[in-house]
Design brief:
Radius of gyration: 32 Å
Distance between the termini: 59 Å
Shape: elongated
Number of domains: 3
Largest sheet: none
């Protein structure tokens, strides 16, 4: 540290970075006794005295806090308390509260600036105070000070909160030994990566356990502070999204995991909408790895567009993604060491997963599509469920998806009360695993079935009968119930069902799947 920097330091608190400067001065003054040395001593003596007084004050504060936290008895203090008739515990609490208030006021008056040469930096004081708070982490009396430290705005790159302080907070909060208000928790996640990672993984674990339903996931994510933290701090969102990205790569076909990401993204945007526009980052800042051309189209809610435009909108998204996958495969064919293309396609798919409401809309649109215009929507649905397959596998699965749609189109277009057994059995066979060839994800086929049964024109009783036969023979009761629950939740998000007919059909399908579809074989779960 230069002499100029020492002169610029405020008298509020000692800057620990001054210590080497004063040690060097002390050594120099002790080695020689010359007129120059005496002049240097006279020049610096007042500032040295100020620095030592600040240092002594800080050491005393830390000592008192540590003493109060450990309840160690002091002979003089005990004698004074006896003389005054003050109980020991009451004395300790009063002194602790006064010390906490004093340090809290000091923090409130502190400033952290590296942009001005006329102002000093008090980050050393903040670091010292946070270090002193380590023994007090679980003391209720220290809560205001802990909250003030966590929410202290710091722009200085030299010093901030003590790592020991953040580690102790993380440990106590994880054990539920510490109660923090909402903003303090958000600040803790912002400054402590281990605490943030643990919060994200705990949410994923609780939301993807067996028996979790889309409505329960929605409730859990809505109660979590993570979406709010992500909206307030772009850096927090980037960490959370990176954890989601890593998990998704390992569980590509796990519908529970996808549902959590979709619900989280919805809650995140709700929190983002509550912020002032000037305080929130741009979409590109939150999603720097996503294809820019897809950000606005996918993050535009279906309810924000005219109903007659939805199909063309999804056809555009489908063609954009087809073009991206073709470019990737061309790049891989020409350069086998090029992995950038695969990265672009994955990021596009990751974005589509987070905007899963568009996938739900496209499945509903497939119910009313004709054989001539269903192709782009079926491609997009197949890509959503099978993103990593190269063109030959994707082409094979697209053929199967088209076959599934054809069978359902025929089944739900009949007028007679007798079901065509050939279409029904052929459709059910598509749900059976095929060891020698890539098979469709059961969730894709069931999604088509549930939407045809809900929005198709067949009588309710026949739709329920088709659903009962398919779910019973395939053994996919849990998966079908989850698909139906997701559909019901999406329709509720609009504020009301499109009409009473749709609501009644969903209730009938729910009762059918729950009570009449006991599987004969173990359920095939998407993994």
């Amino acid at each position: 540290m230069t002499e100029l920097q020492v002169q610029q330091t405020t008298a509020h608190s000692p800057n620990v970075q001054q210590m080497p400067f004063w040690l060097e001065k002390a050594i120099s003054w002790g080695q020689t006794d010359t007129p120059h040395t005496r002049n240097d001593i006279a020049l610096h003596l007042k500032r040295l005295r100020d620095f030592l007084q600040q240092l002594l004050s800080e050491i005393s504060s830390v000592k008192v806090l540590c003493h109060l936290a450990t309840d160690e008895e002091d002979g003089a203090a005990v004698g004074l308390m006896k003389h005054l008739g003050v109980p020991t515990k009451e004395y300790h609490l009063k002194v602790l509260k006064k010390m906490v208030t004093r340090i809290q006021e000091s923090i409130g008056n502190s400033r952290c600036s590296v942009s001005s040469t006329n102002k000093g930096c008090s980050c050393g004081s903040i670091w010292t105070a946070s270090e002193a708070c380590v023994p007090l982490i679980t003391c209720p009396e220290a809560s205001p000070l802990i909250g003030a430290l966590l929410q202290q705005r710091m722009t200085c790159i030299r010093e901030g909160l003590s790592e020991n302080f953040l580690d102790a907070l993380h440990s106590a909060y994880s054990r539920c030994d510490l109660v923090l208000d909402e903003q303090a928790v958000v600040s803790l996640w912002y400054q402590s990566l281990p605490s943030l990672e643990e919060a994200v993984l705990n949410l994923l674990e609780s939301a993807t356990t067996a028996g979790s339903t889309p409505s329960k996931v929605e409730e859990q994510v809505s109660k979590s502070l993570l979406p709010k933290a992500c909206a307030q701090h772009c850096s927090v969102f980037l960490v959370v999204n990176d954890i989601f990205r890593t998990v998704l790569k390992q569980t590509e076909r796990n519908e529970r995991v996808k549902n959590v990401f979709q619900t989280f993204t919805k809650c995140f945007f709700m929190e983002l909408s509550r912020l002032q526009p000037q305080t929130s980052a741009s979409l590109k800042a939150f999603f720097p790895q996503s294809p820019p051309s897809l950000l606005i189209p996918l993050f535009t809610m279906p309810s924000e567009m005219p109903q007659e435009s939805l199909k063309n909108h999804l056809i555009w998204v489908s063609s954009s993604l087809q073009r991206l996958t073709e470019e990737e495969e061309d790049e891989e064919d020409s350069d086998s060491s090029n992995i950038r293309g695969n990265h672009k396609v994955f990021e596009a798919w990751f974005l589509l997963v987070q905007c899963g409401y568009w996938v739900q809309v496209l499945v509903q649109l497939l119910v009313t599509s004709s054989p001539e215009d269903c192709g782009p929507l079926l491609w997009l649905l197949t890509f959503y469920h099978h993103p990593t397959n190269r063109w030959h596998h994707r082409a094979s699965q697209l053929v199967q998806a088209k076959a599934a749609w054809d069978h359902l189109y025929s089944l739900f277009s009949i007028v007679a009360h007798l079901l065509p057994a050939d279409h029904l059995q052929s459709f059910i066979s598509l749900l059976a695993p095929k060891p020698q060839q890539p098979s469709l994800a059961p969730s894709l086929t069931l999604n088509l079935l549930v939407n045809f049964a809900t929005f198709g024109q067949l009588p309710q009783s026949i739709s329920a009968e088709i659903t009962q036969k398919v779910v019973h023979q395939s053994g996919l009761q849990d998966e079908a119930a989850r698909v139906l629950s997701s559909l019901r939740l999406r329709l509720n998000d609009r504020g009301s069902f499109p009409n009473d007919r749709v609501q009644l059909r969903i209730e009938e399908l729910h009762n059918t799947i729950k009570n009449k579809c006991k599987p004969d074989a173990p359920s095939q779960t998407d993994t």
